[in-house]
């Protein structure tokens, strides 16, 4: 066995190696068996081994899954996002996209998706074929559930992904099963979700026994009329609900901040919540609203 070549490959591949790589380097099946018998290597997947000198890690698990699934497969979803370092949350499983005619069966910790990515969606990154960064973020955001909104929010703010990227992804994959998750993210990101956000907020307030708000309330501000999402005129408290797209529009951000300053000067308390707050932290919304109403001064 070309030991130097094998050792170098193990170092490059986070301690994991495929049987075919050993054979191509001049090794034999018997030498692999001996390495396992001596407990120098352990078999982690069919045909894939990890040298015990290298501790198991997220990187080794992802790389082992990629080596096992073979040529033409691609790391996708949450695992791909982790590989791109856009999230530090470890994926609970490694998602691998394979051709529809492959006969592989899923293994513990590996999720196989029979889906053939478009060529321009694939990138070789750190030695692995993975989904491109934008696709990885979108797929991970869907897979992560509640945490996915936070991931998408951060990547929108960093300009790693844009609203146009979301729209483009939806159009390209509109006939695929499971695309409803991406569409839901899009609905949250777009201001088109504003009406549903308001309804959700009102349901939360009603459930908590909070009343007294108005919709369609008008406030003259700097020569213009401002329409907050919800208003408590008596306590001079306003509620605004921001979609994820709010972060990506610098002009809107600046205008909203200026308008909010004008409202504060006029004696209004402005509370801002996100869709994530409404869906996953309603108790925080209730607590903040109650505190603001308690300290609000009645309108003269």
TrEMBL record:
It comes from the Bacteria. InterPro entries: DUF559, Restrct_endonuc-II-like. Pfam families: DUF559. Residues 195-293 form the DUF559 domain. This is DUF559 domain-containing protein. It comes from Nakamurella alba. The lineage of its organism: Bacteria, Bacillati, Actinomycetota, Actinomycetes, Nakamurellales.
């Amino acid at each position: 066995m070309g030991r130097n070549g094998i050792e170098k490959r193990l170092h490059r591949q986070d301690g994991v190696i495929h049987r075919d790589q050993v054979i191509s380097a001049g090794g034999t099946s018997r030498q692999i068996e001996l390495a396992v018998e001596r407990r120098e290597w352990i078999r982690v997947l069919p045909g894939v081994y990890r040298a015990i000198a290298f501790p198991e890690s997220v990187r080794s698990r992802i790389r082992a899954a990629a080596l096992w699934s073979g040529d033409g497969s691609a790391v996708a979803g949450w695992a791909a996002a982790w590989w791109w370092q856009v999230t530090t949350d470890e994926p609970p499983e490694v998602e691998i996209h394979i051709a529809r005619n492959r006969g592989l069966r899923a293994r513990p910790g590996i999720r196989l998706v029979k889906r053939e990515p478009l060529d321009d969606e694939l990138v070789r990154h750190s030695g692995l074929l993975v989904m491109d960064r934008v696709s990885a973020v979108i797929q991970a955001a869907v897979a992560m559930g509640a945490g996915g909104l936070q991931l998408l929010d951060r990547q929108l703010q960093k300009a790693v992904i844009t609203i146009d990227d979301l729209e483009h992804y939806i159009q390209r994959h509109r006939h695929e099963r499971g695309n409803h998750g991406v569409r839901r993210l899009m609905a949250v990101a777009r201001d088109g979700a504003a009406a549903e956000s308001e309804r959700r907020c009102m349901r939360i307030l009603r459930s908590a026994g909070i009343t007294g708000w108005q919709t369609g309330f008008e406030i003259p501000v700097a020569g213009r009329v401002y329409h907050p999402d919800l208003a408590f005129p008596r306590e001079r408290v306003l509620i605004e609900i921001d979609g994820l797209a709010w972060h990506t529009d610098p002009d809107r951000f600046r205008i909203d901040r200026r308008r909010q300053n004008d409202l504060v000067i006029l004696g209004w308390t402005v509370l801002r919540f996100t869709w994530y707050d409404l869906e996953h932290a309603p108790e925080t919304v209730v607590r903040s609203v109650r505190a603001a109403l308690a300290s609000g001064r009645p309108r003269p």
